[in-house]
């Protein structure tokens, strides 16, 4: 599940088409325990996550995620100032707005409230990439219709359309002038990317080393400080006491 979540976050970030080498301020809707946010941090971006589940946000705090976390229901709107974010991603969350847990909840109204506030909090010209699992074509049409009413342009990008298990839907929304829609991945493209990835080995050693580190150890602390320094954050200089456990006080 962690690998699948990370790959979908990587694909969503790729579809955002952000400027290379420039940190951006991103919104992660339905952030959960912060798995997709971890990839945003590793890519050098700052982010804010919102989720309706307090237990999932507690798990994100326990994992010491880099982003800021907010408890909220996206169906009631996003409580941020207009033009706050350079982009938005969401992994496996938006389709839940199509379900009514109460008699007072109307999916179409909740979707419209979500998309209108999302359009507002994005800077003009920014993108929102929402990965989702629609139950049927009617549900997908309901989502895209409300997004269009809110002012978005764009469409749906389908990766691996001929695969039952690997098929993924990405709703690509543009808050500015309409641009060409990215192309979906196919099995042939995936094979080429896997070959190139196996040859370069650029990200695999770093990710494997992070998972192998003991939490709160000296290596873990040094790696976290180095990552924050790459992001331009103020970091205290390393000393012989960095990462050393303190003795208990009586």
TrEMBL record:
<feature type="region of interest" description="Disordered">
    <location>
        <begin position="183"/>
        <end position="250"/>
    </location>
</feature>
<keyword id="KW-0539">Nucleus</keyword>
<feature type="domain" description="18S rRNA (guanine(1575)-N(7))-methyltransferase Bud23 C-terminal">
    <location>
        <begin position="173"/>
        <end position="247"/>
    </location>
</feature>
<keyword id="KW-0489">Methyltransferase</keyword>
<dbReference type="GO" id="GO:0005730">
    <property type="term" value="C:nucleolus"/>
</dbReference>
<comment type="subunit">
    <text>Heterodimer with TRMT112; this heterodimerization is necessary for the metabolic stability and activity of the catalytic subunit BUD23. Interacts with GRIP1.</text>
</comment>
<comment type="similarity">
    <text>Belongs to the class I-like SAM-binding methyltransferase superfamily. BUD23/WBSCR22 family.</text>
</comment>
<keyword id="KW-0808">Transferase</keyword>
<dbReference type="InterPro" id="IPR039769">
    <property type="entry name" value="Bud23-like"/>
</dbReference>
<feature type="compositionally biased region" description="Polar residues">
    <location>
        <begin position="183"/>
        <end position="200"/>
    </location>
</feature>
<dbReference type="GO" id="GO:0016435">
    <property type="term" value="F:rRNA (guanine) methyltransferase activity"/>
</dbReference>
<dbReference type="InterPro" id="IPR029063">
    <property type="entry name" value="SAM-dependent_MTases_sf"/>
</dbReference>
<comment type="function">
    <text>S-adenosyl-L-methionine-dependent methyltransferase that specifically methylates the N(7) position of a guanine in 18S rRNA. Requires the methyltransferase adapter protein TRM112 for full rRNA methyltransferase activity. Involved in the pre-rRNA processing steps leading to small-subunit rRNA production independently of its RNA-modifying catalytic activity. Important for biogenesis end export of the 40S ribosomal subunit independent on its methyltransferase activity. Locus-specific steroid receptor coactivator.</text>
</comment>
<protein>
    <recommendedName>
        <fullName>18S rRNA (guanine-N(7))-methyltransferase</fullName>
    </recommendedName>
</protein>
<keyword id="KW-0963">Cytoplasm</keyword>
<keyword id="KW-0949">S-adenosyl-L-methionine</keyword>
<dbReference type="Pfam" id="PF08241">
    <property type="entry name" value="Methyltransf_11"/>
</dbReference>
<dbReference type="InterPro" id="IPR022238">
    <property type="entry name" value="Bud23_C"/>
</dbReference>
<dbReference type="GO" id="GO:0005737">
    <property type="term" value="C:cytoplasm"/>
</dbReference>
<dbReference type="GO" id="GO:0070476">
    <property type="term" value="P:rRNA (guanine-N7)-methylation"/>
</dbReference>
<feature type="domain" description="Methyltransferase type 11">
    <location>
        <begin position="27"/>
        <end position="99"/>
    </location>
</feature>
<dbReference type="InterPro" id="IPR013216">
    <property type="entry name" value="Methyltransf_11"/>
</dbReference>
<feature type="compositionally biased region" description="Basic residues">
    <location>
        <begin position="203"/>
        <end position="215"/>
    </location>
</feature>
<dbReference type="Pfam" id="PF12589">
    <property type="entry name" value="WBS_methylT"/>
</dbReference>
